[in-house]
Amino acid sequence: KLSIIISSSNKPLPTTEIEVKNGDTVYEVLKRATKKYDIELSARNTDMGVYVEGIAGLYEFDKGPKSGWMYR
Fold it and tell me: Which segments constitute the Transcobalamin-like C-terminal domain (predicted)?
């Protein structure tokens, strides 16, 4: 199951089941989920991999100098 949580009062993506295929990266699963629910996803490739800049209109640094997107 995948849940994208912006804050305790705002969930742009309902908790949902997304198929995880053998070899999928976290980003590939995120991309499928946001496409399925028509949620904006902004990302760019870096030397270290894909960097997610924003989801659903909320971007890095919008909530302060150390804010951004993480997964766990």
Answer: 23-71
